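Need tokens for this chain, all 286 residues.
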Amino acid sequence: MAVGRIWNNTGKGKRMGEGEWFAAFCGALTIGRTQRDSIAYRTGRIMGQLNHDLRALDSKTSNRFYVGSYGRNTAIPSVSDVDVIYELPASLYVRFNGHVGNGQSALLNLVKNSIENTYPRSAVVGDGQVVVIRFNDGIKFEILPAFLNTEGTYTFPNSNGGGAWRECKPKQEMAAFSKRNAECNANLVPLCRMIRAWRDRNNVDMSGMLIDTLAYQFIATWEHRDKSYVYYDYPPTCLTPWSLRSGQLHYNIRRKGASPRSPRVSKNMLQCRPPTGRLPLTSPRR
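Here are the structure tokens for all 286 residues:
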């Protein structure tokens, strides 16, 4: 079934099938080189300053890695948040664990002050567990300072409620996500991106973490998970707001400031239908 046209340099359109259309659509949802270069440049400046101030190290790439949607490669060009973990030297844990008062808040303030050395005119604030840098173009970086544990997990500061240490497993979770994507013929990442495009198109209040969690759970048992773009018109019907209201997730997913609307990813794209069954969903991690 032909679903669209590709326009050539003569101004004449060539009909294309579903597989070609989805290939082109998914290609348009990838982040371009210019945007990636801008993110890498800012990351380098931030990490270079932290490495200089906290480790006496001249490096813009050491002791950090991307997490969140950008780290999972599920972000699309409309991405506004870039999440980065910065690995702190162990000596700082000893110092701030014995700090009088809220040592976690003091540690975040140390990281914040370092970043302000390289971005003095940007809005830099400590926010619970992260240091947030807001840029004028709408991009926001969230830096999570953390200590690497011997078992491969990370301990990070939580300055809320008087201060405490918390633990996370970002590398293990990203490895599990990458493994499932590989097992599904690399279909998990495009699925997450398409749902983000649908969310943005319809102004749906839905976090990227929730999208990736639902897609991760759904694709594990989807019968077409190892197929090509030709089958891409099937999965979104099982991940519409109707299915999101089923199971244990009682989210009221609505357009902001409006009544519910028939979900579409983009113009002429993915007219979704209520699914016939329910997905056994569990609450995603925050």
